Amino acid sequence: MIKETAEIIKNAKFLTAFTGAGISVESGIPPFRGAGGLWEKYDPYCIEINFFYSHPKESWREMKKIFFNSMGNAEPNKAHKVLADWENRGLLKGIITQNIDGLHQRAGSKNVKEFHGTISRLLCTSCGREYPTQTTDLTADLPVCAACGAVLKPDFVFYGEGINQKVYSESTELAFKTDVMIIVGTSGEVMPACGLPYTAKQNGAKIIEINTLPSSYSNTISDFWFERKAGEFFGEIETLV
Ligand code: APR
To answer: What is the pTM of this model?
Structure first.
């Protein structure tokens, strides 16, 4: 099956990837759902937008534990690197990721649509000033804006927040143009992101899925489902493409 998949990838006219937390698990970042998932340990309510504005200190306390402590020193793994190499060779046209960890860019990918935003930037909730997370002191209970003193918010999409319109339309355009989509490490449960592979499928795209467990796509729109770890799969297929 992997040889057949390699041929499909090599002959794709508009190859894209749709990725979720599972692609970063081998980089040491836990997934959200399933065994050991973050939402088993933490309450997702801490990143609900109204809770953040009404209880910023508690929200920041939990966010530091969930995101900032684990994502800080994660490195891209084989899966991120192979996708970046395929883009570099002109084979992969773009990645739509639900992840906020920035590992695709760190692996060298350029055309990355961060559908749920990013942890690498903090925004002032009042004057809108941007701060790179890497160089911002997060030790305070409540990180605040140096210019106006208002609370800073990580630039990722909270529950109850809308998706950035520009990212949404660019991601939808990518999905429309796709003739082969590789879906890596997502349960496919969170709207509107999880609708994008259906958009590709409706336009005739072949769907290749890599997931260690069945997702909402595996027995519906996936033409191929590799029940494999992302890093292992890409380590094998890179020799064939
Ligand atoms: N290789 C491939 N797949 C894996 C691996 C691995 N090493 N480890 C886990 N997986 C799979 C799991 O089987 C699961 O289907 O990755 C998927 C991760 O699913 P989720 O944790 O639900 O992550 P995701 O689909 O990206 O969540 C979507 O939910 O909470 C929100 O905003 C958050 O972007 C996130 C969104």
So the answer is: 0.97
